[in-house]
Amino acid sequence: MTERTEVLHSTSVSICAEAALRWIGCALLALGIAVCATTFGGWVWLNAYGCGTGCNDFRLRWEDTEALAVFIPPFVAGTILALAGAGTIFFNRSK
Asked: How many CB atoms lie within 10 A of CB 14?
């Protein structure tokens, strides 16, 4: 290969790797947001279901440590996934 061909080949490989990392970053970000949204939706559903149908003062029960022990770990995992995705997108963007 000539020098010009080698430069073009290395540039195209770099662009493909950057696109793949950007796609992975977007997937991680979307997955993290989905996990956080689902976890929060489950938390709200649990509190609404626990309230029953005749409840006038619906609120999120933050003092329920047993439920929080179930809902906090997936929320933290979703946050970590979203941050990893955002970091991948940010650090692998075009210069």
From this structure: 10
Q: Which amino acid is at 49?
A: Y
- Give me the DSSP letters along 1-50: --HHHHHHHHHHHHHHHHHHHHHHHHHHHHHHHHHHHHHHHHHHHHHHHH
Other CB atoms within 10 Å distance of the CB of residue 27? 13
- pTM, two decimals, is 0.75
Residues 6 and 49: beta-carbon distance below 8 Å: no
Report which secondary-structure segment, H or E, holds 53: none
pLDDT digits (tens, 9 = 90+) for 73-83: 999 999 999 99
Half-sphere exposure of 50 (CA within 13 A, CB side): 13
